[in-house]
Amino acid sequence: MNRLSEMRTLFLLISLTVACNAMAQLKQFTLEDLNYGGNNYYNMSPKNQYYTWWGDELVRTDVEKCFVVDKKTGKEKVMFSLDEVNSWIDANDSVYVRHLYNAIFPYSGKTLVMLGNRYETILVDWKAKKQVWSSGEIGSEAAEWCPQSKATAYVKDWQLYVGDADGVQHKITSDGSSDIVYGKSVHRDEFGIYKGTFWSPDGQKLAFYRMDQSMVTDYPQVNTSTRIATLEADKYPMAGETMHKVTVGVYDMKTGKTIYLKAGDPTDRYFTNVSWSPDSRTIYIQELNRDQNDMQLVCYDAVSGNRLKVLYTEQHDKYVEPQHPITFLPWDSSKFIFQSQKDGYNHLYIFDKDGNQLKQLTQGKWVVLDILGFNAAKKQVIIRSTECNPLQNNLFAVDVKTGKRTLLDNGRGCHANVWQADGGCSSALSASGTFIYDSYTEPDVPRNIDVIDIAKVSRRQLFSAENPWKGYDVPEYSCGTIKAADGSTDLYYRMVKPTNFDPQKKYPTVIYVYGGPHARNVEARWNWYSRGWETYMAQKGYLLFILDNRGSKDRGRDFEQATFRHLGQEEMKDQVKGAEFLKSLPYVDADRIGVHGWSFGGFMTISLMVNYPDIFKVGVAGGPVIDWSLYEVMYGERYMDTPQDNPEGYEQTNLIRKAKDLKGKLQIIQGMNDPTVVPQHCLQFIHECNIVGTQPDFYVYPGEPHNMRGHQSTHLHERITQYFEDYLK
Prior knowledge:
The chain has 12 helices and 43 strands.
């Protein structure tokens, strides 16, 4: 060997040594790092900052201080501290403020901050350095404070109360019970419903739900933590069975009287998306028949309760699914925006208050996700949509007169990630609609926060989170498309390759599946929206594959409704296309493909295991639907109709009849007190397996609901991991 060859060999050895040392120095993840119940999960998540609006002034809230932010320079100035606030208030154990994250500035131009907890609401004037108002101790649930009247609606001991600005508590109802429920979400949180009280714009009237569920069957949940197990029944209306009856009441603060809207017999009807007219005189409700294929937008007189007019009707041969209340234009109270999928995609329509459609404001093969609010000065509505890409959420200003749309963000990723109780993000918009604080993420961006000047269409970065996984052995995340089983529709997938990936090797593969409506698993977020458990499994040498099949959300009405009356069937066909794609890859071991999912994904997991046993060797199904006739009325009948009307569909999708076809290793996991997918599902499946001689494994979490809470989630994911380690690897 000559001198040059010796030097080359030495250099190669040194390079390999350095590379090996670098790999050895990369840290390894644990589930305590990656699972949301883990002890170190917070430290391994992208750092965040929290903002709110004081009119058009941007405020950053933190544990110890609140800061006003200069939107041009990003510089901050302290407004007040936690210690100062607690020295100004009339402190006692229930009012003492423990942090300032939830500080609210309800009055533009006034130096008042709203603070407190679930027991009491207080207003502090930080300029005058004193407490100026208190709601008095309420200690209740479902509380909603109204800044216009300083009144609080709340539920206590099943009764609805209103505490007025003077601290006087008014008991609105007297017959509340577990059978008669006031002021809470109804229809099992479907149709965009997330609460049960609705203040009028002037703060003088309160609309509220009354749900009579006395006729609904009690489902016998059992509390096993007592000395002798006790019955704790849930009201659970199953598909095809008797459902609850809902009415809407209106309490008038000035008169102290309550009336109920004269909507007629509430039997087999849904009352959704309650909203008020700007003058507080009229209430609007989107009403559905039980079949959910006929929707009426109806207005009522808020004083008499009289039904005034049906403003709009929408029918569909499958289903109509209203998710958004109407929204009046702030500069023209005679017109409102109505959201509908009637052209195949959720879009905005302008109506006058008499119910005449004036025009379609947005259109295209993309979805309006949310209305953030309005820029009244420029007569624009600010929206989030999928117009840029089906995997993205981007911000647009829409000119209400011309329909012209102006992109406000950078055109990449998922924006305005500031979630509220209703699932929207209107709090990202300033009071006048002039500015947005935009918390966003991209596949390679953990989190950035910009402030957007809507008039100038300009952005200034306020915060950029460092990658919390720097120095760790991180797998490769990628996104792509395959064709659905229909041969034409594009489906998006995420792939997570094993760490230290070697294309010459063959890897065991786990398909993570949800597959149901109202969810998508693949988005243009950090690491393509990958779950921490996927990274954990990739570190252990697995390839992970996640496909959004037909039936999932934000791809339009027809994409979702392809599964109507036969849930799981088209979804399985698409997932099998995903498995066929995986088998075509030289580094996927076709004999070691597993599947895991929860809830609808649990249903999909077992469906795939028993219908395609030659493809899927190992499965872990959590909280699975087994028989759709055992699932609740609102969701179940929307997608399947009733068992009486669609016996073939219910029989086709019933997994009990397929228990005999189980060949691979299947573990079923269940929260024993699950109020969503009740334990009867998995127990009936296991019972049938006992009869036909198949052998699933079963694990239960006593006292837990549909999803495991706290650190038990980490225990759960360790169990899921171990099952694949034992039987797939």
